[in-house]
From TrEMBL:
Membrane topology of the entry: Multi-pass membrane protein
Similarity annotation: Belongs to the ABC transporter superfamily.
Cell location: Cell membrane
UniProt name for this protein: Branched-chain amino acid transport system permease protein
UniProt entry keywords in alphabetical sequence: Amino-acid transport, ATP-binding, Cell membrane, Membrane, Nucleotide-binding, Transmembrane, Transmembrane helix, Transport
Segments passing through the bilayer: 29-48, 54-74, 81-101, 107-126, 133-152, 172-197, 232-254, 266-291, 303-323
Highest taxon of the lineage: Bacteria
Main localization of the protein described in the UniProt heading: membrane
Domain named ABC transporter: residues: 364-612
């Protein structure tokens, strides 16, 4: 038995080392590419280009800088903020007007541009705390539509349609920046931000952002505070647009409302979506190509908007995930097949967390719990006390309130009255991320995974919300961040091992797994932070017999290791097979309880008798 376990551990260590080596090699190639592109952009045009070409190229670089911010917000975090042209305008006019009217030094203008532009960007994105997706996109788009009109309305200050004139050349800390020098500065800013986005993408913050993007509730269940994440995203996305606005106005020594209109927004949206939102190269290639196209047909040509709109429509249908994402996956698979000489890594022993709270208190203690949705009271004063070590099945007819009670325990639904305690700590009224942060694991009826992330990265999400979150470390890839990443990775590998997933799945994309394995990955994610309580919502639904067996045995093993399990389940055979305790919920109240070794109450037996055999479950 011991030998089998060790060899399974070694196989996992080997598979993980292979996965990591492929990633590292791809990252090295990718970063070399970034350096080559940045060097070529910085050196070649000022050496060989005429001033018209450099003017066009510098505009493309400004757009690329904005695209990097959009990639953080939309690509990584899923926030469809579209107000970047407006942020650029605010930043550009701030710097321009300070220069023209007050003659302030360049460094003051830079600070003001960044501060005002970013502040405006954050304000613009605040509605995202209430509305998401396309609704939020429309709200933020309004600012882009309104901005040129606002600039014209304030023409006494902004110069209106004729533009703001009289801006003197940029002087930063005693250095006068010529047009070519501003271009090179813009390329340096672009390359630096590109590296920062890459650092972010590969960091524990990157995991948190993509978790909020793809599995909003799962992220909260893992202890991630979505409001905090979004506020950080708003700042990170607004800074590049503010910098681009500052550089643009100082390069052109002129500000015009036409520079910050819908065409710019459309170009960036189309480029990022077509290229591959969330990837390192996609947005840069996409926006770079479209900017090239736009300059070819002429920046003010009416073909611009039509062509961009058409490309967006066709591109979204033809490449729903962007060109770079599918290409990147093919390259990764190809490289993975070629790399065979990988030295196995080791998996360090797991440091078990001492469980928090009062060890003698019930693991779950629900008292007179009432929950209502509007006028509809679903849970009507339920009491349920579960001791540590329980493997409790919560059963009952459709609509009796089972999922609602599970959601209330983990903070997804708030009680109207009554109380809920976990390990003796009152959690009534706490938001979901706070309960998740206490180390309560949770799975969902429909697995909520990041489809294009690996199985291991998905499991790591379970650990990221539980630890200190150093943003600067993530942006700059500091040693503290690398250490944190490695620790969370090790915990995830242990969770991977504990649920008995096949080692070769460690680097597989979650999207490529069958439903049964997705559920097991969710269980692994739920135990990644080594919780002592996990809550599962219909884990056996839709699984075939073999998958149910694997899931049941996994849960039984975890329970024997001291993890308390509460599951909502319709499959009574599954509940009878694995649970040591059953609670029957009927019309919002606990109607019957049973514990291993006790006779079953008649009402529970009658309920179970409606589902006569395991074969019946198979058909349901
Ligand atoms: N967010 C919500 N808003 C309004 N009503 C809700 C909400 N969530 C649940 N309900 C209602 O509460 C009742 C109980 O739902 P719940 O999902 O808890 O039942 P359940 O016992 O888990 O049922 P099932 O086994 O069918 O999933 C149902 O009538 C449902 O429509």
């Amino acid at each position: 038995m011991e030998a089998t376990f060790l060899s399974a551990g070694q196989a996992l260590a080997h598979a993980h080392a292979h996965f990591r080596s492929v990633r590292r090699r791809l990252d090295r190639i990718s970063l070399s590419g970034v350096a080559v592109v940045a060097a070529a952009l910085a050196i070649l045009p000022p050496l060989f280009g005429d001033s018209y070409t450099i003017a066009r190229l510098s505009n493309a670089v400004f757009y690329l800088i904005v695209a990097l911010g959009f990639n953080i917000a939309f690509g990584l975090a899923g926030e469809l903020a579209l107000g970047y042209a407006a942020i650029m305008a605010v930043s550009a006019y701030t710097s321009g007007m300070l220069n023209v009217y007050l003659g302030t030094p360049g460094i003051v203008n830079l600070a003001a541009s960044l501060g005002v532009g970013t502040g405006f960007g954050v304000l613009l994105m605040l509605p995202s705390l209430r509305v998401r997706g396309w609704y939020f996109g429309l709200v933020s788009m309004f600012a882009v539509l309104a901005m040129p009109y606002l600039i014209v309305m304030a023409e006494d200050w902004t110069g209106g349609e004729n533009g703001l004139v009289g801006i003197t050349g940029l002087n930063l800390l005693g250095v006068n920046f010529s047009f070519n020098m501003i271009y090179v500065l813009a390329v340096v800013v672009f390359a630096g931000l590109w590296l920062v986005v890459d650092n972010l993408r590969r960091s524990t913050w990157g995991l948190m952002l993509t978790a909020c993007r793809d599995s909003f509730y799962a992220a909260q269940a893992c202890g991630i505070n979505p409001t905090r994440i979004r506020m950080v995203v708003f700042v990170l996305a607004s800074v590049p647009a503010s910098l681009a606005g500052f550089l643009m106005v100082n390069a052109e020594m002129f500000a015009n409302p036409g520079n910050y209109d819908m065409n710019l927004t459309l170009l960036i949206l189309t480029g990022v979506v077509l290229g591959g939102a969330g990837t390192l190269w996609g947005p840069v290639l996409g926006v770079g190509l479209l900017a090239g196209f736009s300059f070819w047909v002429g920046p003010f040509s009416s073909y611009n908007a039509v062509a961009l709109g058409l490309m967006l429509m066709i591109g979204v249908v033809a490449f729903p995930n962007g060109v770079a994402r599918s290409t990147g996956k093919s390259i990764r698979n190809w490289m993975s097949g070629r790399m065979t000489d990988v030295r196995p890594s080791s998996i360090t022993p797991l440091r078990r967390h001492a469980s928090s709270g009062n060890a003698n208190a019930p693991v779950v203690d629900i008292k007179r719990l009432t929950i209502a949705f509007g006028a509809h009271t679903v849970v009507k004063g339920a009491n349920l006390q579960l001791q540590r070590g329980t493997f409790c099945g919560l059963v009952g007819p459709n609509g009796s309130g089972k999922s609602t009670i599970l959601n209330a325990i983990c903070g997804a639904v708030q009680a109207k009255s009554g109380s809920i305690a976990i390990d003796g700590r009152n959690v009534t009224g706490l938001p979901m991320y706070a309960v998740g942060g206490m180390g309560v694991g949770r799975t969902f009826q429909m697995p909520q995974l990041i489809g294009d992330a690996s199985v291991l990265e998905n499991i790591m999400i379970g650990g990221v919300g539980q630890t200190r979150k150093g943003l600067l470390g993530a942006l700059l890839r500091l040693p503290s961040e690398r250490r944190r990443y490695r620790e969370i990775e090790q915990s995830a590998l242990h969770a991977f091992q504990r649920v008995g997933l096949a080692p070769e799945l460690v680097g597989a994309d979650a999207d490529d797994l069958p439903l049964g394995l997705k559920r097991i990955v969710e269980v692994a994610r739920a135990i990644a932070a080594d919780p002592h309580l996990i809550l599962l919502d219909e884990p056996a639904a839709g699984l075939n017999r073999a998958e149910k067996l694997k899931l049941g045995e996994t849960l039984r093993r975890l329970n024997s290791e001291g993890v308390s399990v509460v599951l909502v389940e319709h499959n009574v055979s599954f509940v009878q097979e694995y649970c040591n305790e059953i609670a029957l919920l009927d019309d919002g109240l606990i109607a019957a309880r049973w514990r291993d070794g006790e006779p079953q109450p008649t009402i529970l037996r009658d309920y179970i008798d409606q589902y006569p055999t395991a074969d019946h479950d198979e058909e349901v």
